[in-house]
Amino acid sequence: MSIAIAVFALMPLVTLLLVGLSSNARVYEQSLALEILERVRLDRKLGSPLEPSMTYALPPAHSEDGPVLQSMEVTLLTDEVGNLVESREAATFVVNYTSIPPAEADSGMPAAHIEIAWPAQAPNPEHRIETLIGLP
Fold first, then answer.
1. Would you call the peptide bond into 119 cis, given omega within 30 degrees of 0 as the criterion?
2. How far is the CA of 111 from the CAs of 12, 37, 49, in angstroms?
3. Angle at Cα 91 formed by Cα 46 and Cα 32, nearest 5°?
């Protein structure tokens, strides 16, 4: 009888522990994704606007004649610390970078949409974060 009471009392604690562990894993993945998003953002913003970015080779926002007037998309695969990898099997995150040209050549500022999705192995990753940034 006392064993049944102990099992009955401990069952909710075990359930709460499992829920807490899965929640902790999701928060950890989100923090890694946010860090990679920040690395991609800084890579494009700190590099020359006339050349591809240094680390991720993201397209330039400007040409010699002014802002680039066509949208360009880049898809990258990264591990959990942001290093580029070759295959989805080795990747943790999928980074989708889309440059957005200004509406007119002589006005407006180019922008970029950055999306980080995971797990990379899934055909349609279920988790994602995204941001829109203005480019110099």
1. yes
2. 49, 15, 12
3. 55
Which one, of 126, 46, 133, 118, lies nearest residue 77 by Cα? 118
The β-bridge relationship of strands 127-134 and 111-118 is antiparallel
CA distance 117 to 41: 15
Is the pTM higher than 0.70?
Answer: yes
Q: Spell out a b/e string for 43-68, using b for 16 or more CB atoms within 10 Å of the CB, else e.
A: bbeebebeeebebbebbbbeeeeebb
For residues 114 and 131, the answer to whether their CB atoms sit within 8 Å is: yes
pLDDT by residue for the chain (136 residues), tens only, comes to 677 777 777 777 777 767 666 667 788 999 999 999 999 999 998 888 889 999 999 998 888 777 787 889 999 999 988 999 999 999 999 999 999 988 776 667 889 999 999 999 988 998 999 999 988 7
Neighbours of 29 (CB within 10 A): 16
Residue 65, CA distances (Å) to 32, 92, 105 in order: 38, 38, 9
User: Which pair of tokens denotes residue 54?
Assistant: 């240094």
